[in-house]
Amino acid sequence: MARGFLAQTITVVSLSVTLSVVTKTSCYNLSPVFQKTRNLACSPSSHHWFHRGTTTMSDCKGPKENLHRKARASPYPGSKVERAQVPDDKVNWMINWKDYSPVDYTAPSVLSGPKWADPEIGANNFSPKFNEKDGQVERSSHSGLYNVENGRPRNPVGRTGLVGRGLLGRWGPNHAADPLITRWKRDGSGNKTAHPVSGENILQFIAIKRKDCGEWAIPGGMVDPGEKLSAALKREFSEEALNSLQKTKAEKEEMEK
Predict the structure, then answer these.
(1) Is beta strand 148-149 parallel, antiparallel or unpaired with respect to 7-16?
(2) Per-residue confidence band for 12, with pLDDT thresholds at 50, 70 and 90
(3) Which of 58, 70, 94, 128 has the greatest count of CB atoms below 10 A from its CB?
């Protein structure tokens, strides 16, 4: 699971949607969803992209509505640290901003040196290889190459008003896998249920309520070094949606049947 983010509640959320093509062999569908907001959660020298709930865009020249927003919200999650304010028209790195002065912050839980976190840049025997696989740690991004300045990776989306890793462990991308499990809402006869207003079929998905902030989210979290995506998806869903960490060995075996 994402470090320190535990599910407090699990629920099934219903949406009224329009899908052009839907192919299913059953009413349940498990599909891996890469949260690019976390895959690209670079811990940069001049900003930090928090990995939960941000919005991605392919490049900094994209439309205004695609600018990351939660990545600029203050205070930083789990702290009282206020980011430097970054207006929409200054997010783009192509815009010159000589007075930009981001706040430097890395959470104490990261600086304490847990096994899932990198040392600080400049630490002895730590020379990360960016934009490629670095031993068991994947530092390449699913959205292409990112810039490295003064030994630190730069957020490819733009300024966020923060320096350092925040709650993220890795310098560069912090890869995550979120299993998105959906089904069509059906009546007692097995027929799809339509929304009373829109008339569209209702698609349901599993969501969890996070303990740290009370927000609803898709269950999921960080992919461990060397871990296969399929294994991470299964582990994260079991931990966050099925409470596997609190189950006995016998209960886990029964759950996996």
Answers:
(1) unpaired
(2) low
(3) 128
In angstroms, rounded to a whole number, what is the distance separating the alpha carbons of residues 217 and 1? 12
Distance (Å, rounded) from C-alpha 257 to C-alpha 142? Answer: 33
d(CA 75, CA 162): 11
Q: What distance in Å separates the CA atoms of residue 82 and residue 72, rounded to the nearest whole number?
A: 10
Distances from the Cα of 246 to the Cα of 4, 31, 152, 251, angstroms: 15, 25, 39, 10
The closest alpha carbon to 3, from 210, 214, 215, belongs to 210
- What are the boundaries of each domain within the chain? 69-174, 177-256
Please report how many Cα atoms fall inside a 13 Å half-sphere around the Cα of residue 164, on the Cβ side. Answer: 17
- The percentage of residues in the chain with a pLDDT greater than 90, rounded to a whole number, is 44
Sequence-ordered alpha helix ranges (H) in the chain: 36-39, 108-111, 229-240, 249-255
**Contact (CB, 8 A) for 15 and 193:** no
| CATH class of the 177-256 domain in this structure | alpha beta
d(CA 159, CA 35): 19
Q: Where are the beta strands (DSSP E) in the chain?
A: 7-16, 29-34, 103-106, 133-134, 137-138, 148-149, 152-153, 162-166, 176-184, 202-210, 216-217, 221-222
Residue labelled with tokens 């040392």: 119
Within 10 A of 64 (CB to CB), how many other CB atoms are there? 9
Q: 82 - beta bridge partners?
A: none
pLDDT in tens, 81-130: 999 999 999 999 999 999 999 999 999 999 999 999 999 999 999 999 99
Report residue 216: phi and psi, to 5°.
Answer: -85, 140
- Residue 255 φ/ψ, nearest 5 degrees: -65, -30
Please name the residue that has the structure tokens 């695609």.
66
